Amino acid sequence: xxxxxxxIGAGPAGLFAAANIKNKKVLIIEKNKTAGKKLLLSGAGxxxxxxxxxxxxxxxxxxxxxxxxxxxxxxxxxxDSMYFFKEKGLNSIIREDKKVFxxxxxxxDVLNVLIDCVKHTEMLFNTSAERVSxxxxxxxxxxxxxxxxxxxxxxxxxxxxxxxxxTGATGDGYKFAKSLGHSIVDTKPxxxxxxxxxxxxxxxxxxxxxxxxxxxxxxxxxxxxxxGDFLFTHVNISGPVIINNSRYMDAGDILKVNFTSFxxxxxxxxxxxxxxxxxxxxIKTALKQLNLxxxxxxxxxxIADVDENLSCSLLNKSSRKYLIELLSMHSFKIKKLGDYNVxxxxxGGVSTVEINQKTMESKKIxxxxxxxxxxxxxxxxxxxxxxxxxxxxxxxxxxxxKA
Length: 403
What we know:
By secondary structure, this protein is α+β, with helices and mostly antiparallel strands. The chain is 29% helix and 26% strand. It has two domains: 2-189 and 346-402, FAD/NAD(P)-binding domain; 194-337, no CATH class. The chain has helices at 12-20, 55-58, 66-75, 78-87, 107-117, 172-179, 240-243, 264-277, 283-286, 294-303, 317-328, 384-402; strands at 2-8, 26-29, 50-51, 92-94, 99-102, 122-124, 129-135, 140-145, 149-157, 184-190, 194-196, 208-218, 221-232, 237-238, 254-258, 330-337, 345-350, 355-356, 361-362, 368-370. Strands 1, 2, 6, 7, 8, 9 and 20 form a seven-stranded mixed beta sheet that branches. It is elongated, with a radius of gyration of 25 Å.
C-alpha cells in the first residue's frame, strides 16, 4: 500500500498537519504509546498554546528566524488557532500577559481536540521510525520502522527537537533530514535558565525584577542587549529575559545586569547625589530610595563588604564605585545553560535555508515537508512555539492539499 502522506511524529505539528490534510490516505507514526506527550507538559500542564499579541509582534519572538516563519504565521494566525479550538467546542482564556490557554486550563483538552480531528487517520503508536529514503525514479519515500516498511508520496517530518527527552524527543528528525541530504544547524537547549560561576544569590530564590536591562558580552565585546523580567532561583538565574534570550548565550559569556531603573551613566550621577544628600543616614536606609527588594540590597552590601549601618558620609570612593557597579552593571559569568531536560525548546535543527518558507517543502526533494521544532527556529515563551508548530504544519498541509 502506498500512502498519500506519512507523518513522523504525533506532537502538535504532526497532529495539526493531519487534521488539515483533506481527502488523502494519511499514516501517522509515533514512537510513544500515546500522542502529544510533550504537549501535555506545556504551560505546566495548562497548555499555553498561543499568544494574543498583534501578529506583527510575533515575528520578533523567534530571534533571527522571524522572517522565515512569517508566511506560516500569516497563513494561520494566533486568532485562527483560537477560532479553531472554539469551533471544536473548546473556548480560550486570554491572560493579562496575553498568554492564551484553554478555558479549562487542561492541556489534555487541547490534545483531545487534536486527536478527535484525526480519529479517521491511521495511527501507529509505540512504533519507531528508524530510516527514511527517497526513490527518485518512482518518486516515493520509504519509511522503515522497527516493525514494518511503509511507502508514501508525501512525507512530513514533525518529530520535534531534543528538549524533554523523557517525552521521546531525541532528535530523530535530524537524522532523517540528514539522510535525505539536508543540512543540520548545530542544536543546543533553548528557553532555559542560566547557571553561573560563583553563584551567590541562593538565599534570594523567588526574588524577581520587572523590565530590567541585561547586556550580553562575548569575548569582552557587547553582543546583545535585552530587556525583560528577571528571577533569582536557588540554583540559577531565570525569568523571561533569561529564558527567551538563552538562545544567544554560551558558557563563558558575561551578563551585565542593571537592577536599577536608570541607565548606567544616569545611575552613577544619581547614586553619588543620593549618598551626598543622605550623609547622616546609614547606607541601608539611603538605598531604600531605590525601591529594590530589601534582601537583595542586604546581599549587595554583603558582597561589597559594606556595613549596612555605616553612615553614608563615611562611605569611601572605592566602595561607592563598587556599589554602583553591583547595582547597575552586575557582572555574571555563565557556567552553563540548562540542558535538554529543563530546556523548553531546541535551538538549531533542519536548516531553514533549504526549506521553502511559503510551503515548508524541502528545496532538495519535492513533497518532503518539515513542521515544528525539528526546524531551525525557536520561539519565546508565551505560546509562540506551539503556535509555530500549528502554523508550519498548516502551511505544509495546505500545500499537500493543492497537489
